[in-house]
Amino acid sequence: MSLPPALRASVTPPELELIACQELVEIIPLIAMEKTAFISGAYGPLRPPHRAQIPIWMAVNLKQKKKCHILAPAWLTVDYLQEKLVHETTQAEFTKLPFRFAEISRVLLDVASDDLQSPDKLRTLLKDLREARQAKARAGLESLEHSTLGLSNLSAMEINEIRPFFIKAMSVLGQLRPGE
């Protein structure tokens, strides 16, 4: 059930996942299919064993019907995420990650974990990365000033999480400093 806009603090995580499912992912089709037109565009043709790029929503549908294998994006590997975790825990700034990495990784791990290398290790690394980034965001919000907030390289999910707090904090700061 959808809440009226006045009662919603922000976009829900499932809504963010739905938006992220418009991103393209590479698959190896197990069936042949002609080019198919959708509202969002035309995809295909699919010819096994040739790779194809299609939206995640379509890949998920085909995967659930056992008609394709989904290939992990370049950033959804143990080596890449370990490197980003080291950077995240040793550097002051946020490491650059795909804008919708949290949503895409969740969908792919839920639906196609059998197509990914070391899915349990990926889940652990993503959880550790998320916790490190949340700690940085909290530290950044503690030093919040009315004029600026420098939190670059945040993902869509992270922005969505801090938005309600940030809006309230900026409103209170605005009331405390009416002349600025």
Automatic annotation (TrEMBL):
SUPFAM superfamilies on file: GINS helical bundle-like, PriA/YqbF domain
One record GO biological process: DNA replication
InterPro entries: GINS_A, GINS_bundle-like_dom_sf, GINS_Psf2, PSF2_N
Domain GINS subunit: 75-175
Family designation: Belongs to the GINS2/PSF2 family.
GO cellular component, one term: GINS complex
Sequence ranges assigned to domain DNA replication complex GINS protein PSF2 N-terminal in this UniProt record: 12-71
UniProt keyword terms in alphabetical order: Chromosome partition, DNA replication, Nucleus
Source superkingdom: Eukaryota
UniProt entry tagged with the keyword Transport: no
Protein's name in the database: DNA replication complex GINS protein PSF2
Location in the cell: Nucleus
Subunit structure: Component of the GINS complex.
Source species of the chain: Mycena belliarum
